[in-house]
Design a protein that fits this description.
The protein is built from ten helices and no strands. With about 250 residues, it is an all-alpha fold.
Amino acid sequence: MTRTCLTKTTIGAAWEGTASAVPHIAMDLVWGFTKTARSAPRAACPEPSRRAAGRRVAHGRLRSGASSAACGSHRSIWLSLFGAILLSALLTSAPSPSAAQARDYLTETEANKIRDADLPFLRIKLFTEFAADRFAKFKYELSRGRPDRQRNIRLRSLLDGYMGCLEDATELVQIGRLRQQDIHKGMAELEKRATEILAEMAALENSTRADAAYKDDLHEAVLTTKEALAEVARAKEEIAPPPVRRKP
């Protein structure tokens, strides 16, 4: 009978693909249980009587200590199977990668639009549009005459959504640059909107009080916008120009 062992290396290899979905503490639980159980004393395994052992040795069918070793082997196999079942249950209950990567700053309608866009430059334009929409709402919230207690929360949430959409657009530009994709229309829209927004954000940042709850978020949004424009400039230099269609 071949002895099956469940080692920490085996568990880690099986875990590698889903490390982002399941907490690492679960793997430590499986390994800790297996290690503890294996190190338990083997007194629970009954030893054969002297008469039975002598009779089997006399017949040449059992060497000294073979019964104890066989019992330990069976216990190790059962522990390995238990660990494998527990690990399988944990992996099965883990959330799917799509759920883990869900963008919580997008509405359901916006997420559907992104999913339906089949070209990279269309996704860049959509993310740029969503970012501009959140900045417009941010300005509207600032202009309201009677702020309520939730105002700072809404302002920071809008800036967080703006940065999330803009970072996604920037990432698509970077991927398009590396893959030499035709994303010129998307880059043009992103460059135009980001330049306009950056000028307004800089003015707002200078006029915002130092103790404003959203001041740090606004500064981070300015840096995110500058990074987007820098990536667009880099992509315009490295991506080949779009093909020119000749008239028939």
